[in-house]
User: Fold these one by one.
Assistant:
Number 1:
Amino acid sequence: MSLQWHEFSNKEALDQQLALTIADELKQAIAQRGQAGLAVSGGRTPAGMFKALRNINLDWSRVIITLVDERWVQADHADSNERLTRENLLQDAAAAATFVSLVNQAATPHEALAEIEARLASLPKPIDVVVLGMGDDGHTASLFPNAPELEAACASTQLLAAVTPPVAPHQRITLTLPSIVCSRKVIVHITSDSKKALLLDAMATDVAISEQYPIRRVLDQVPQADVFWAA
Ligand code: 6PG
């Protein structure tokens, strides 16, 4: 199998179709297993898709939602992925009730790992749907190229890893590579020509070079992943 490319002429059409695709996966999971697990990325890309997804009628009380990664800031901080998710996706009370936050009052994500991991016990494993973004450097989740913690997060047997990327403005907590790639469905959501070009380049380079691109390390292990993109 190979990557499933879904191209759209505009971001609105992408957001709508991606929301429908995610909702279908969640409905199937609920029908088959009684509940569904969804992990979404933050950043600037997903807000429109979140709004489309929240308007889809499904039993949100049976969907456990969490984040793929989070900046180590409080949930009301402008850079918080949780804030983005609460403002755009978690408008349904049932969805907000089942949301699993990745932050607490600890000074660093390293100190919080055990407690946050315990919170995620309610998340179905494997996660049913993981939605990934991608940075202009090929990072995904909070797995950054050439960051010392990348190898640890790629080898970890844990669900979460704490990273302090040299290139990110905040310390972060992130799903590890193994927990991402063992998900039932991995979707990459990008909305720029530069990211499309980078992703195509990352997929075209030989594996040794591609190690620089965490997104490639994910997709090498999830060859059937879906890529939703619009220029
Ligand atoms: C984060 C995200 C990260 C994001 C990419 C793309 O916390 O920043 O999880 O992996 O998906 O950086 O971000 P944009 O959507 O802002 O380009």
Number 2:
Amino acid sequence: MTNNTKEEENQGPTPQGNIPPENENENEVSIDSLARKVQESLSLANRHKFWETQPVGQFKDLADTSLSEGPIEAPTPLSEVKQEPYNLPAQYEWITCDMDSEEMCLEVYNLLTHNYVEDDENMFRFNYSKEFLGWALRPPGYYRSWHIGVRAKSSKKLVAFITGIPARIRVHDSIVNMAEVNFLCVHKKLRSKRLAPVMIKEVTRRVHLENIWQAAYTAGVILPTPITTCQYWHRSLNPKKLIDVGFSRLGARMTMSRTIKLYKLPDQTATRGFRKMEPHDVPAVTRLLRNYLRQFAVAPDFDENDVEHWLLPKEGVVDSYLVESPETHEVTDFCSFYTLPSSILGSQNHSTLKAAYSYYNVSTKTPLVQLINDALIMAKRKDFDVFNALDVMHNESFLKELKFGPGDGKLHYYLYNYRVRHVLRPSELGLVLL
Ligand code: MYA
């Protein structure tokens, strides 16, 4: 998931941009802060009754440098994987969700729209569109059996959901077949009944049945143990609405009209040869992206089919642009963002916040700041209210300069059954999950 965050209080972006951070390491996950987490977890025995039983890095092992990188547990023979689903409380039953079906898609959409991730103050809730869900859950080689629902037997109502999709993810030099697990959701009325661990065990079982033993996932909560912790940054495109609905606040000594002026963008993009990505660009974009992602400790291993699926523009779902040199016709730069609105829970005037999320960007010739500024211009033209970006990859190099402000929540990245040598800085991460 993508965590739902809004602009942090009193920390609007600096009008001048370019101001160096007071502490260069402010976004690093320090050993000290993790050690503190270890202490907390040890002092509260059984803090993670479920997660302590799982093959994931445990807090107590964080300082142990003798543990090697790689799988925590070896695969078991397929014949030993449990053949029947886990037990649910008697009133509920498992279903496999057919995301090709309009009705099923709508049921999932309705569950998530009313019960999925909210920000800390419950002002906004993710509102993934049906089209987005269809895209996110059906990449090349997807397994229908990994789209798992729970229904109430009597009413037939969908009350819980969890999904996996297959992905090849490189961790340092190893390419690992993984499941990306996302959209874990339990209906609000069924919370805190330990249904989530059953959902997670069931998706694990179905992933194992396909002979896959590792997974990647993100969450807004701290679990044992993050491979990195990232922060969201927000760039206002429609500051008046963002302030009206409580997403951001008017900065100190700022008026509404000064704020609107501060965030104003040109109508036209600046980069010569900047255009929308088209189907014939897939091979060039794949080359550009593969070459770029090599430098990160953890990143997807995209082939042309993946790029076609994940990065070819899809109306209202994903937007991608590239720079083609007018002289050589070489594709030198690339940027993309996906569309994820949030429902606004308490406003009289507005029901939806239209948010774009920075996805994969590559700059080789166009300075990244200029490339992303062009992406902001396109997002503004498409009527987005805000443009969000994590501090992953090289994003830190444009955030302050382009007037992004820090968000109020963190996003933790995890691997299941795979230990990494040490905790990563966000800038060492080349993976964006939806
Ligand atoms: S992250 C998005 C998660 N969804 C939401 O935040 C939506 C709103 N919230 C809810 O629907 C519920 O609160 C959920 C928990 C369903 C989140 N990831 O049933 P419970 C642990 C992992 O009583 P509920 C996303 O989708 C919690 O620490 N574990 O709690 C990625 C505790 O365990 P322990 C979580 O609140 C999901 C236990 O669940 C999360 O009713 C990746 C409590 O269960 C969380 N986000 O339901 C899943 N939240 O006692 C892991 C709570 O040990 C995939 N918990 O602390 C792992 C890989 C599997 C595949 C492996 C293949 C090899």
Number 3:
Amino acid sequence: MTERTFSIIKPDATRRNLTGKVNAVIEDAGLRIVAQKRIRMSRDQAEKFYEVHKERPFFGELVDFMISEPVVVQVLEGENAVARYREVMGATNPAQAADGTIRKLYAESVGENSVHGSDSLDNAEIEIAQFFTDAEIVG
Ligand code: DAT
Ligand code: MG
């Protein structure tokens, strides 16, 4: 089934000028970038986005990191896009990520792991709506 998922190229990757390299992995995997913009996330946006993790010990650090530098938010479209992008990203901890995945190639640590991808179709819809209007998504 054709799906849309939400992606963020995180500050550790934008800082190192890796946006194009990450996008190449995404596109080579058959996912189409149907919306994309570079933004600076506000603290409110980051706290809301990661609300599910707010009781975790790393929450403060995670929010500080996400607002530390610009990020690139994206909508990706393709066959089984949610699961496919999770595969392409690799494991949360780059030390455990498979060869060829974005996190294996580029991530620096579990906290600064280069990309976000939605973990379910329902969350993809919620996350996309937090950053994009329908008119900004061009399939
Ligand atoms: P994912 O980003 O693979 O969906 P997640 O939803 O469990 O992983 O966590 C969200 C982000 O929180 C993750 O990308 C980086 C940060 N994080 C997760 N576990 C962490 C940990 N043990 N220490 C520091 N940061 C962590
Ligand atoms: Mg997650």
